[in-house]
Design a protein that fits this description.
The chain is mostly helical and 300 residues long. It has one domain. It is 85% helix and 0% strand. The chain is globular, with a radius of gyration of 19 Å.
Length: 300
């Protein structure tokens, strides 16, 4: 009976992680679809954050209500810094990068964030990089070079600029995760996520208000639908599903299952955007996934 319950628990956890990876991976396709309506990156990002803000505010309030201790001033400052310098900047670079590269290529670069976490931890905290991890890192970045060479065939010089922006997104997100790993044990997952995301949402909306005015109220109807989908399906939902799935099956299995993300993006981009799938792209994808999954497993 206990084995059956354990198998069911594992199946539910694996399903939650799979759905979270698929939901998060759909974000790039939604962004590219919205760009067809001549909307700029700041406006689209503001729309996504405006729809997301109430959910993260509730998350922060719920986390606060469940915890008796208060967040210290030091941790509050760190949460604000990570919300601004991590997630806000990361999201901005991502939306800008997607103006210049395909959705499939964007997802491949973002998938590198665990390798960047390893490098940051080695440089700032002196954590040793084993030979196995070093080989996995090399494998991942060889894959990126293959995928970049394929991207340049279709996007020309813009591919390098877009890749730099998206890599900046992956780097700042990795900084966010490294910082979060040290604050969450004291602040709690719900409070940290809720407060950090609320800060990033407020920053985006402030930037939009200062630079764009009220144009957000005069967008085509499909853009509002895509903005709402990005907020619900590719922002709030995957955060909850991934956390619950990881709780059930652990970080190692989560790393393996979540590797479907780049493949899912490539397939959906092919269906909804008409992006081409090439042998060179799939070779790069295979190397990146193999390298990143190996890195994740070694750190689990």
């Amino acid at each position: 009976m206990f084995q059956k319950a354990s198998r069911e628990e594992g199946l539910v956890g694996a399903s939650l992680v799979f759905l979270a990876a698929a939901a998060f991976s759909a974000k790039a396709v939604m962004i590219k679809l919205a760009y067809r309506y001549d909307v700029d990156a700041i406006t689209l990002l503001a729309l996504r954050m405006a729809f997301s803000l109430p959910f993260f505010a509730v998350m922060a309030a719920y986390g606060e209500a469940r915890t008796e201790s208060r967040v210290s001033r030091g941790d509050a400052a760190k949460i604000m810094f990570l919300g601004l310098g991590g997630f806000y900047l990361s999201a901005l670079l991502d939306f800008m990068g997607l103006l210049y590269v395909s959705a499939g290529f964007e997802r491949l670069i973002l998938f590198l964030y665990p390798t960047i976490v390893v490098l940051i931890s080695a440089v700032w905290f002196g954590q040793r990089i084993t030979k196995t991890v070093a080989a996995s890192l090399a494998l991942s970045y060889v894959g990126v070079l293959l995928a970049l060479s394929n991207e340049a065939r279709f996007y020309g010089k813009d591919a390098l600029y877009g890749a730099a922006l998206v890599f900046g997104c992956a780097f700042t997100y990795a900084v966010y995760l490294v910082g979060a790993d040290r604050v969450i044990p004291r602040a709690g997952t719900l409070r940290f996520t809720g407060y950090a995301m609320t800060v990033s949402c407020a920053a985006v909306l402030t930037q939009y208000g200062l630079t764009r005015g009220g144009g957000i109220f005069r967008l085509p109807a499909p853009v509002y639908r895509l903005g709402l989908l990005m907020a619900l399906v590719s922002t709030v939902l995957p955060v909850l599903l991934m956390s619950e799935g990881m709780r059930r099956i652990g970080a190692g299995k989560t790393a393996i299952i979540s590797s479907v993300g780049p493949v899912f993006t490539i397939l959906t981009a092919y269906v909804f955007l008409g992006e081409k799938i090439t042998a060179l792209q799939m070779a790069g994808t295979a190397l990146i996934i193999a390298g990143v999954v190996s890195v994740k497993e070694s750190r689990a």
